[in-house]
Structures are given as structure tokens and as C-alpha cells.
Write a structure and sequence with these properties.
This protein is about 70% helix and about 5% strand. By secondary structure, the protein is mainly α. The protein has one domain (about 1-120). The chain starts with a helix and ends with a helix. This is Trypsin.
């Protein structure tokens, strides 16, 4: 059923978008402070949030794949990687944020783990 696949992704995407928007406005002070006081808290947050978002999108897309040359990629992983790359780079121009290649790497690691888990659970 279409709603069953897309609803979890849609709700979580709204949560992630709200988190990004709140961070861009500098409105998540208490939460940001708490996350930053945890060892690797920010990086773990990136990995977990973006990894889970990716897994849910792969589920919503029913594991659809795309070919880029000879490379076969999960469409959900590709979409999230492109969007998160743009989002992280955009932080260069947002005063309350700062671009961080380690944050971007944590996003990519979360995406890769989500893709691996999806493929293990849903063999092609």
C-alpha cells in the first residue's frame, strides 16, 4: 500500500526539515547545546538522522535503483546524498551555521549504512 510506505518517510522528513530549519534560524539552542556536550553527539546525530531518513526513503521507493554508467545505486540513497550535500554546502552562507566536512562525512556514512541494511534485508 502506497500510504504505508510513504507516510513514515514523510513524517520523518518533516521532522528532519524542521530540525534543519530551526538550526538555520538559531532556534535550537538548548537541544544543540545538549547534543554538542555529548561525545561525538553532533556527528552521531547526523549519522542516525540521515541514515534513518535514507532507509525510510529506500523503503518508500521500494528499493528502486538507478544506473549511473556501470554503477547501480539505490535511488533513495542518491536523492538523500544530493540533498544533504546541497544542505551542508548552503551553510557557508547562513550566519548561524558553518560548513563542516566531517558533518557531511557522517551524513554519507549514515546513507551508506542505510543502503547496506536495506540491501541485506531486501536482496535483489
Amino acid at each position: 500500500m502506497l500510504i504505508k510506505r510513504w507516510l513514515p518517510f514523510s513524517l520523518f522528513a518533516i521532522f528532519v526539515a524542521g530540525t534543519i530549519f530551526g538550526s538555520n534560524l538559531g532556534r535550537l539552542g538548548t537541544i544543540t547545546h545538549w547534543v554538542n556536550t555529548q561525545p561525538f553527539g553532533d556527528k552521531c546525530g547526523h549519522l542516525i538522522l540521515i541514515g534513518f531518513l535514507t532507509y525510510l526513503l529506500n523503503h518508500a521507493l521500494d528499493g528502486r535503483e538507478i544506473n549511473i554508467g556501470r554503477l547501480k545505486l539505490l535511488l533513495g540513497c542518491t536523492i538523500v546524498a544530493v540533498v544533504m550535500t546541497i544542505e551542508e554546502i548552503s551553510q557557508i552562507w547562513i550566519p548561524s551555521r558553518s560548513f563542516d566536512v566531517v558533518d557531511l562525512s557522517a551524513n554519507y556514512l549514515g546513507i551508506a549504512i542505510a543502503g547496506f541494511v536495506w540491501l541485506r534485508q531486501n536482496p535483489v
